Amino acid sequence: MELLLFNTLLNKYCCFIKQNDIKDFTIFFKFTNTTIFILQHTPHILFICSWYPHIDNPTNGIFIKRHAECVALTHKVTVVFAKSSSLVSKETVTITEAGNLTEVILLYPKISSIIPIVKEFKKLNTYSKYLLKCVEIAQQKQAIDIIHLNAIFPACIPTLQLIKTLKCPLFITEHWTGYSPEDGSYKGFIIKYYTKQIINKAHTIITVSDYLTRMMKSHNLHGNYHVVPNVIDTKLFSTTDSNEQEATRFIHISSLDEAQKNVTGIISAFASAFKTNTTLHLSIVGEAPNKANLQALTNQLRINNNVTFLGRLMGNDLVQAINKHDALVMFSNYETFCLVIPECFACGKPAITSNVGGIADYMTSDLGIVVDPKNEIQLTESFLTFAQTKQQYNAALIREFAVTHFSKQVINHKLTNLYQLALA
Q1: 190 lies in a domain?
Q2: Could you give the CA distance from residue 75 to residue 404 in angstroms, rounded to a whole number?
Q3: Structural domain contains residue 289
Q4: Do 54 and 127 belong together in one domain?
């Protein structure tokens, strides 16, 4: 009897698969003591990205790549990204596959024109053409179930064309600081027009912090908002045994963008703290054109022997550097999330940080010290206070906080629930 029922169910499922052109599915089910099958289609998520790591900038939008890897734990994910580059003389497509994740990255030559408005139009038109070409490649693998736009502009322009033909839910995840008054980059007809258009078409809008949601709504960008923070690789970023040392070592990790990260403020406050405690050391990780100016400032303040510039670090090199230090220091003027803070938490390291943007949503005294943005006196005091109290921080508890809030499994669960609501 069970065998007859099994054959009947299996025939029905095979017909369903054929009629709906389902190429990828998992089957498992059970009656009494016999295993039987339940059909579950594996959705294909198209990640359309305005930012993504590439040969010109391997850390550009690294947090979007982490989200893609996270979603790929349980879904088929194809990332599409197009970018003009001075490193190529013709269109170059690179397709990379790793498990459920496929990346389609297209680089094309820079656009030139002596008339600014013509150049801008040509840039957007060419960009849209090439990004849609990446989408065509993605569609060859499997039918798309959900479009997920990451960082709205400029990828929203070809996405608006795409949703006219692809009848599937549109998700948006936004990371951009431009909506905040401190940044103020959300301006101009083109950005505002296309942003409002795509927001109105979205089934779900995801931000990485409550702060970013508030900032977007302040520009009358209303919709079905949900907060899903950035994800960290808690296997890569992990604690190691560290030797006790007299010196207190701080590390700063960023793009070194002065307007946002206020690295000169960190150096100035560190110099003031160093006058009181000469066992302090500061390492700065990152590359930017203004790096030479920062190095000159350490010479001017006579702290160059206690400030080390490590350049750009990634992967295991970055983790090893974090684990050689006692705490992270960030002094940003504005942020939407600041990924490097929970990455350091995963290594068991506390943070000294300014109280801006999404950071305030999760900072507690067990995780570090919070100062007002641009307040160098407070930052100086925090350097000195931490050096005296660093033994009170519990590395295991700090790491546990990171794992329970930002791990791939946690973020995958949040995103999967939202996808399932859209597909129901």
Answers
A1: yes
A2: 21
A3: yes
A4: yes
